[in-house]
Amino acid sequence: LVHGLWSSHEIWEPLYQNLLTTSHSYQWKAYPVGQRPEHGKLNMGGAMWSGQTASSVYENADRLAKYIKFAQEDSNAWHVDMVAHSTGGLVARLYLHKLQSPVPDSRPQVKHLTMLGTPNGGVKCVDVFAGKLNVFSEQLQAAKELTNDEMLRFNQFVVNTGGTKVSALAGNSVPII
Fold first, then answer.
1. SS3 87
2. In the chain, at which end, N or C, are there fewer CB atoms within 10 A of the end residue's CB?
């Protein structure tokens, strides 16, 4: 479970502790990225306006790789499914493109990625605030990655899913996915 910008693993608690465990038994394992920070933690800027600087999507993809390795080892699994919210979907897409590891059965390490509200096409209001008004300060640098121009560049190069089935719900679709 990959959280988005200005959020943390805690956003997933109502989902996996209630809905998923009661629907799929208490043996079902969910791994909200960052819940066990010793195995990796995304730096998405803390709470909005906290002043904490967020890491880039690229740095967070490396951190996601560490957490996925932990989840695989902890559950003794070759494969995982991912659900990602908002900017977490971009982090997950980048992970698939450049960091997904091969597994012995030659199928994708990440079988499914479901993106919830991922701004694959950018965020228009960020274009206005960051580009025209230059409102975002250094603490909000991560939001500048969400401009339409930045997302066009991102989508131009981040094209490989490694065979993972990708779905986008309540977000902008990407023509290549």
1. helix
2. C
